[in-house]
UniProtKB/TrEMBL annotation:
InterPro entries: Cyt_P450, Cyt_P450_E_grp-I, Cyt_P450_sf. Heme binds at residue 498. Belongs to the cytochrome P450 family. Pfam families: p450. It comes from Morella rubra. Its cofactor is heme. The chain crosses the membrane at residues 20-38. The keyword Transmembrane helix applies. One of its GO terms (molecular function) is monooxygenase activity. This is Cytochrome P450 704B1. Keywords: Heme, Iron, Membrane, Metal-binding, Monooxygenase, Oxidoreductase, Transmembrane, Transmembrane helix.
């Protein structure tokens, strides 16, 4: 019999070789990590890790991501953020933005990836479509926005909505009640389809928006969706609420249109975007797909309601925290009131801030004095809104897909399949774009000799790029010429300029003119004002304030 093998010796030898191997492996891994970090020692963007890229840092800063980007973009005009399956390139340099939005526009569509993140919410609506699908919707919407009817209709509707909101504020002021202005703006102002939105819908819609935005940095979202767990399960629930409500609005509107046609009362058809799309998308039998219309409605809720409600909230916040701005604005609005009353030969109703009756009547009288041309003369207000959008752009980041490898004007290489995002939130805060006072709220920077002055087009990108870039300079007041240029430009299928810019200004000016003329706003002490991460720069906790009537 041979000698029994000494097991403990064998174990310890194996142990030793395991330990040796493990140590070797650990050293190699640490070495790789060290080399990886060494190579990044001069990098100005976020530090990356092998395999996961910058995902950890981006995830940890997700709730304050816009400011996280401000920090990096102030050190370097382009920030590259590699993630597990994709690389995001963030740009704040006007030359790069011009390249992506105009010069090489064809290379930067929304792209498949963006579409896959957003489809559940936006479907194939205008914000989430490329190619023919996009062109068709853009054309329909462009015709609508070029029409004078829409302008006239909007002026009336926006006035009506603001008066409703004013009635709520007037009541709140007499009982010193707190109001959430963001909710007020979302519900009372800002939709071209007056039956939208109701509360459960609005909540579910916001939740869905928050979760689809999270997909940009969540590499596990597809697995969660497949298993229907976590955020994706909540998304699924929210979309059901959104869809139920939207389809019911569409069915109701279709029935109204049918009834109006049957009885020959075409003037009973609500003249808004939804009716227009129902009409234009109808097949030879007069039917249009509910799914197509659902996508149209939801895209226009984001485009038309969320953007303006958000901007109005930030504008009120800025006005309320800067008494000098509030006062200048108040003076401009009072002066307009007196001038308009003289021109229209109207004697202004005397009112007492303690007496709701006379106060409310004067508010209504003021609202009647605000026609399209009068609003066009409110340059300081125009500057206040524009300055708000510079610092708090309703669309804080706007990502584009990359079709083919390309080199940006500053030499940054971008690869097909990745994404390039221009970042209006950061662009508005960069000293290299706006000078040393970039972070300050100064409406005066937009005024020259009391008149509003546009900034260079690729520096102020809150609305993408302005149509002036294509049609030469067109004064702000010439909406109709501008609309025709926009339409002409659209028929050639150029970049995706915001179609609602003029309508948005009209709406926001109407709302702020009435509210800031008659109310003084104060933030509820301790109320936190910060954004939340979603496609729109909404306030995470709303804007809670109290109001007082002004003389
Ligand atoms: C403060 C208000 C607003 C801001 C800051 C804003 C901003 C923008 C931005 C940045 C885009 C480009 C998005 C992209 O690249 O896909 C855009 C597109 C668009 N906006 Fe606006 N917008 C505002 C109000 C409105 C309003 C009131 C409407 C209409 C009711 C509107 C209709 C649209 C449409 C239809 C598009 C899609 C253009 C396209 O993809 O061809 N916007 N807007």
């Amino acid at each position: 019999m041979g000698e029994e093998p000494n097991l403990s010796l064998i174990w310890s030898a194996t142990d030793e070789s395991h330990v040796g191997l493990s140590m070797l492996l650990a050293c190699m891994v640490l070495g790789c990590i060290f080399i990886h970090f060494w190579n990044q020692r001069n990098k100005k963007g976020p530090k990356t890790w092998p395999l996961v890229g910058a995902a950890i840092e981006q995830f940890m800063n997700y709730d304050r991501m816009h400011d996280w980007l401000v920090n990096y973009l102030s050190k370097t005009k382009t920030v590259v953020v590699p993630m597990p399956f994709i690389t995001y390139t963030y740009i704040a340099d006007p030359a790069n933005v011009e390249h992506v939005l105009k010069t090489n526009f064809a290379n930067y569509p929304k792209g498949e990836l963006y579409h896959s993140y957003m489809e559940v919410l936006l479907g194939d609506g205008i914000f989430n479509a490329d190619g023919e699908l996009w062109r068709r919707q853009r054309k329909t919407a462009s015709f609508e926005f070029a029409s004078k009817n829409l302008r006239d209709f909007s002026t009336v509707v926006f006035r009506e909505y603001t008066l409703k909101l004013s009635a709520i504020l007037s009541q709140a002021s007499s009982s010193n009640q707190e109001v959430d202005m963001q909710v007020g703006f979302g519900v009372e102002i800002g939709t071209l389809a007056p039956n939208l939105p109701n509360n459960a819908f609005a909540k579910a819609f916001d939740t869905a928006n928050i979760i689809v935005t999270l997909r940009f940095i969540d590499p596990l979202w597809k697995i969660k969706k497949f298993l229907n767990v976590g955020s994706e399960a909540l998304l699924d629930k929210s979309i059901k609420i959104v869809d139920d409500f939207t389809y019911s609005v569409i069915r109701r509107r279709k029935a109204e249109i049918e009834e109006a046609r049957r009885t020959g009362k075409n003037n009973k058809i609500k003249p808004d975007i939804l009716s227009r799309f129902i009409e234009l998308s109808a097949d030879s039998e007069g039917n249009s797909s509910d799914k197509y219309l659902r996508d149209v409605v939801l895209n226009f809720v984001i485009a038309g309601r969320d953007t303006t409600a958000t901007t109005l909230s930030w504008a009120i916040y800025m006005i309320m925290t800067d008494p000098d701005v509030a006062n200048k604005l108040y003076m401009e609005l009072k002066t307009l009131e007196e001038d308009q009353a003289k021109v229209q030969n109207v004697s202004l109703i005397h009112y007492d801030t303690e007496d709701s009756g006379s106060f409310n009547r004067r508010v209504m009288q003021y609202a009647d004095l605000l026609d399209y041309d009068a609003l066009g003369r409110l340059y300081y207000l125009h500057a206040v809104i524009t300055e708000t959008l510079r610092l708090y752009p309703a669309v804080p980041q706007d990502p584009k897909g990359i079709l083919e490898d390309d080199v940006l004007p500053d030499g940054t290489k971008v690869k097909a399949g990745g994404m390039v995002t221009y970042v209006p939130y950061s662009m508005g805060r960069m000293e290299y774009n706006w000078g040393p006072d970039a972070a300050s709220f100064k409406p005066e920077r937009w005024l020259k000799d009391g008149l509003f002055q546009n900034a260079s087009p690729f520096k102020f990108t809150a609305f993408q790029i302005p149509v002036e870039v294509y049609g030469g300079f067109i004064p702000e007041s010439h909406l109709d010429i501008k609309a025709v240029c926009l339409l002409f430009h659209d028929l050639q299928a150029g970049p995706r300029i915001c179609l609602g810019k003029d309508s948005a200004y009209l709406q926001m000016k109407m709302a702020l003119a009435i509210l800031c003329r008659f109310y003084k706003f104060s933030l509820v002490p301790g109320h936190p004002v910060k954004y939340r991460m979603m496609t729109i720069l909404s306030m995470a906790h709303g804007l809670k304030l109290t109001v007082a009537r002004r003389p």
